[in-house]
Structures are given as C-alpha cells and as structure tokens.
Amino acid sequence: MYLMKNLLFLLFITLYGVSVSAERNESTNVTEKISEHHGIRLASWRWDEYSSTILFNLMIILAATFKIAFHQIPYLPKYIPESCVLIILGCLAGVIIKYCVHFSETHPFPTFTSDLFFNVLLPPVILDAAYSLYDREFVSNLGSVMIFAIIGTLFNIFIVGGLLRGIFMVGLMGRTQELSLLECLTFASLISAVDPVAVLAIFEEIGVNLGLYFLVFGESLLNDGVTIVIYNTVTALDEKGSHVVGLDYVLAFLSFFTVAGGGFLIGIVFGILSAILLKFTQNSRVIEPIVVISVAYFAFVLAETFHWSGIMALIGSGIVQKRYAFPNASNSTRNTVKHGIRTLSSVSDAIIFLFLGTVVISKKHDFQIYFILWTLLLCFVIRFMGVFLLSWIINMIKTKPISLREQFIMAYGGLRGAVGFSLAALISDQKPYKDMVITTTIIVIFFTVFLQGSTIKLFVNLLHIKRKNDKNESHSDVINVKLVDQVMGGIEAITGNVSKYRIINLLEYIDTHYIKKFLLSHNSLINMEHKLRDISMDEHYARLYGPTVLASNSKFSTICKEDTGLINLKHSYSNEYLINNLEDQERKMSCQSLEKIFEDSPFELYKRRFCRRDVNFDDHVLKQLDSSKRTAARIKRRIMEDEAKKKFFGSDYKELNYSKVCWKDLESKTTAVDCIKREYHNTRKRIKNIRMKTE
C-alpha cells in the first residue's frame, strides 16, 4: 500500500508537470516547431522546451526523497515538523532556479499563483478533511467549532485591524506607509486565516485526542471560509472608497451568510446527487471513484462561479458523500477514493510548502520592521485572548469543559500558511503597500510554522495533553453509545426538556425511515447487515479464543504444536467446526489486536486482580485453561447424555436449558472460566442456527 501511494504521488506530479508544460507550449507557433525539428535524428537536446517541466518534477522527487530520509533520522521528526523541511527545500530550489538555471521566455518555471492554490492545490486537502469530519466527536463539538470559527475569527479581524489603525494614528509605526481603516481590516482578514494545510500537517504528526484535534482543525477549516468572505467584502468596500452608503454595509452583512450558506447548500445538493448516481452502479463499479471525485469538485467550481464559498461546498459534499454515497459504493471504490484523495492531499501539501519556499527567493520584498513586529505581537496576543475568552463562555454552557491546557494548545496552534499568502497576492498591483503586506505575511507564516510548529510538540508533552486512542472502537461500544443516546432522549422526553439527545433521536429517526430509504440502495442495506453480523462474530471469536491465543505465545504454544496437545484441545471442545476455523486462521486476529480487545475485559481484569506477582502468569493461565478444558469436557458429556435420553424416551423428553445449569459442583469459579462457559453455550446455539439456515 505504501509503494502504491508513492507511485500515485509521482504519477500525479508527472501529470501536473506535463500539464503546466502544455499550457506554456500553447503560445508556441506550430510551424516553428516543425521547422525546428525538421529532419531525421537519433537524438536531440530540447532543454529549452522541457527545462521547466524537468526541474519541477526533479524538485518533487527530491522532496519525496527528503521526506523519506526525514523520517529515517532518529529524534528529528519528534522536534521538527515535516512542513519546515519542505519549506527549506523550497528555499534551496528557489535559489537554484533564480541564480543557477536559465529558462526561456516561452517556457518559464511554474509560479505560485492564487488561482493555482485555490482551484487546484487546496480542493484535495479540503475534500480529504471533509471526509474526516464525518465523526461523532466532531458533531459533539460542532457548536464550539462554529463559535471559534465565526465569532473568534471576527474578533481577531476587527481587533487586530482596529489596533493596527490605532497604532498608525498614534505614530508608533515609524516611517511605515500609513494604511486606512479598510486597508488595515483587509490585512487583518488575510493574516487571521488559520491555514488548515499547516494545522493538519502538524496535528496529525502530534496525534492529540480527537476532541482537541477537531476543535483546532475544524476551526481552521471553517475559518478559511469566514476570512475569505470578510476579505472579499472589505476589499469591495475599499474599492468603492467614498461612495460607500449604508446599503453597502447591509449587503456586506448579508453576504457573510449567503456566501457560506450558499456554498454549503450546493455541497449538500451535489453530495445527494452522487449518492443517487451510485445507487445504479452495481454493474459498472469502475466509474464510481470518478463519480465521487468529479461531483465533489464540480460542487466546488459551481459555488465559486456564484461567488460563494467553494470550501464550504466541498465540506458539505464530503460529509454527505461519506454518509450516503459511500455505503452504495463497493469496498474497492471506498479504498480507491480514500487513498486517492489522501495521496492528492499529501501531494498538494508538499507542493504548497515547496512553493512557499521558492516565493521567499523569487518575490520582491519590502521589510518594514515596525509593521512586522506589531503584526507578530498582535496576532499572537489577540489569538490567545480570543481563545481564552470564547472558551470561558463555552465552558459556562458545555457539559464537558475545555481545560486550560487544551486552550493553550488551541491558541498556540493557530498556524498561518498559504491561504493568507494567496489572499495577499490577490491585492491589486496598483496598491503601493502590496509588497509590504506580502513580506509581512511571509514572515508571519515562517514564524508560526517554524517556531510554533516546532515547539508545539514540546508543549503537548509538558502539559500532558491526552493523545489519540489508537484502539479501534468495538461494536459493543457503539451499541452502548447509542443506548445512552436513547435513554437520555427518553429522560428528556419525560421531563419535557428539549436538548441535544432528543434532537439526535429525531434526526436519526428521519434519517433511518426516510432519507436512507431514498438514497441508499437495497444491496447496500443488506451489505450493512452482513457487515454487522461479521463484526459481531469477530468480536465473539475474539472473546471466546482470546485467552487461548494470547497464552499460545508462551508455554501453551508448545502444547498446541504437539499432536497430543491439539487432540486434547479438540477433545475439550465439542464443536470441531470452530476448532478448524481457528486452526485454519480464517479469523486472523493478531496478538496485539487481541491484547487491545482484552485490555478491559474480564480476563484482563482477572489477571490484574487475582494473579500474584510472584506467580508466573503463563503457569497461571495454563492452570485456568486446563480447568476450563475439564469443564468443557463435562459439558460435552452432559450434552451427549441428554441427547441419548431424548432418543431413548422420544419426543416427550424435554431438553435441559443449559443456560441455567448449576455450576456449584465444578472446581473452578474464576471470572475467566465463567466467561468461557457462557461463551461455549452461546457459540453452540449460534452455530446451530447458522447450520439450520444454510441447510
């Protein structure tokens, strides 16, 4: 899988380089090419034609090589983010491109433009992030995320912009060219854009808990839509100058909701469209990935055509596709889309950081030290003020408060990136302060990515922030969560209180009885039932044979490998079907996964509570397993006796209820053995029902 991702990575870069070269070649006269390559040759040197494509692909290959070498160096990935290495590599490439390599005017080196960023590089990152937002933890924190993304962003923009204007008026900016209030707000809107690319790259490496991850990442994702809307609004007001009237402010306020809401609505509509299309692809599975990706990108383009938020369109489309379109698709389609979008997102990340490095060398800079220092100070301080103030308000309402340590990480994790730089590049060339704004934006990006991004891991460790739990959520855990939702919804219905649980139950009822019946195909519903059955059986086998498999890594393995040991094991269990499945490894369970499953199981609790430290646990387990084998043998004899009595006495004989067998006469009464006894009966009944259905 890793090799496939690398091949997709290089294939995408090659196609991108070829497309860039093709765009440059369109302006070349065809007749000149024919005359230039006239004649038969064994080989020719066409460096001027392909130099930009070759160097761009070479830069990407070197970036992939550096990424591989970066993760092989001990301790380096723990302290330095990967994005920093890519930016440094981009700076080196910028030096080589500017001072060491000559390009023809018809085939220049590709440059970083706002259109390239917003229309090509950013959509894969946003779509990949939208798929990951389909999570219960994100939904439970959605209110907090919206407060930080909307109110927090507006707080940062207007406070930073107002204070910058005040500093200009007081005269603390030195000889820096003075900016008006709208120009200060324009700069504040672009510098307040928390970049999801930088945040995603840093926080995925850290591996913080999902609650904090979705608070920071969700805020950065929705923050972009807010900052772009404010940026476009303030820029439009600045262009009108003194002709601004009261109606313009009203329209600016309303556009804030229409741009974000309209884009999200378009994403939902096209997400539903992709789910409907995938209902009819049972006989043409090969086109399913194209449908999913192309419909999502078309939603982005259409939203941008209406001058609405394409980012919000991708978010809405991605969430709806994950909920309704993916169940209609095949497993191979889901894997293809998942890894394909993840690969494109990784490629886009690398290209963005590389281009940021090359921009440092290629762009014309205007260093205004006072403006740079005041901007860094205000961005840092106002970010902390906004996070702590809004967290204080949220904690008065929220049941699970945001701790001070998590608030610090949220404030410190407000990294800037290519979004702010791309908005700065959109400023008209007629504005005399454009170079100063671009230079200041680049320095703020470098300050947050290098300084804050490199030290945030240190603060996460020092503050003992809870990390992400790698343990997969079992089916029983999901059932327990649903049960709690239903019980809490019932309590709220009895008390007459309307809260999130009643709303969740109402939405799930509508979703199950109406939406899914319309959007999901009948085969997908059947596949979901089969998947549920397989998951239940896997967990059942893990609980039944987990102690045996875990013990088989030590002394018990030598017993099982012997013929006599295997015969005794088969003799202990009456059902040879289960033993053969275990022996043939049809249920492939690794010891690590079993240890995670049994982390809080009765077996592990028994181990921690009853096993003395001075006793070898392997011997202890063998003793208990031997007792359980004797118990199973007794059960088998009891079953055989009852079956013989039933045959002898005829249909009048009633079979005993083995779930109510008295175990007082048995020797062992430990928790582990009792668990095996219960599982024996449940498994026997389940296998009997399965055989009856198959026959």
Brief write-up:
This protein is mostly helical and 695 residues long. Helices cover 77% and strands 0% of the residues.
Description:
The protein has helices at residues 2-25, 30-36, 47-72, 76-79, 82-99, 114-132, 136-140, 142-170, 181-191, 196-206, 210-240, 246-278, 288-305, 310-328, 331-362, 369-397, 404-412, 418-425, 434-462, 475-495, 500-519, 522-551, 555-561, 563-572, 576-584, 591-597, 602-610, 617-649, 671-694. It is globular. It folds into four domains: 2-28 and 46-110; 115-462, Na+/H+ antiporter like fold (Up-down Bundle); 475-519, no CATH class; 526-694, no CATH class. The chain has 695 residues and is an all-alpha fold. Helix 3 (47-72) runs antiparallel to helix 5, helix 13 (288-305) packs across helix 15 and helix 16 crosses helix 19. The protein is built from 29 helices and no strands. The longest helix has 33 residues, at 246-278. Residues 63-461 form the Cation/H+ exchanger transmembrane domain. Belongs to the monovalent cation:proton antiporter 1 (CPA1) transporter (TC 2.A.36) family.
